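Re: that chain you flagged

S.,

Sorry for the slow reply, it's been a week of failed gels. I finally had a moment to sit down with the sequence you sent. For the record, here it is as I used it:
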Amino acid sequence: MSDASTTRRILDTTQTIAVVGLSDKVHRPSYFVGKYLLDHGYTVIPVNPMIDEVLGQKSYASLADIPVPVDMVDCFRRPDQMVELTEAAIRLNAKVLWMQLGVVNNQARDMAIAAGLEVVMDLCIKIEHARVFGGLNWAGVNTGLISARRSKRINL
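Prediction finished late last night. Pasting the structure tokens below so you have them in one place:
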């Protein structure tokens, strides 16, 4: 688990994020996260061998196929797949390995740390971004519908 200042620094210095398991299905959490990251100025590289493109971004079959430098690898995969993904993130020279909510693998964490990567485990990058930079409301999202401003009344 990382504290708010560490999370803020990681998210502030990250530009390019490979999202492993980014889905093209709009109801999936990975889709919401990918869209949120794009909307907040990050370069998002989808990694999903089942799709060619999502959110207007070319998808790659694996981390090894990505032709550009990546700052962070954000993983929407099962914990038992994390050792292999960590090895790939290390080969990619990523700076951060982020394991989403429910993804806990201590062996992968230890491997990444030993290789010099920072690790965030069992946290949602979207929620953490909103928490440290603002925009998180009671439901966990910023809908833009709740405001302290008085609405204009229409007289009929």
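What I noticed first: The CA atoms of residues 83 and 108 lie 5 Å apart.

Talk soon,
D.
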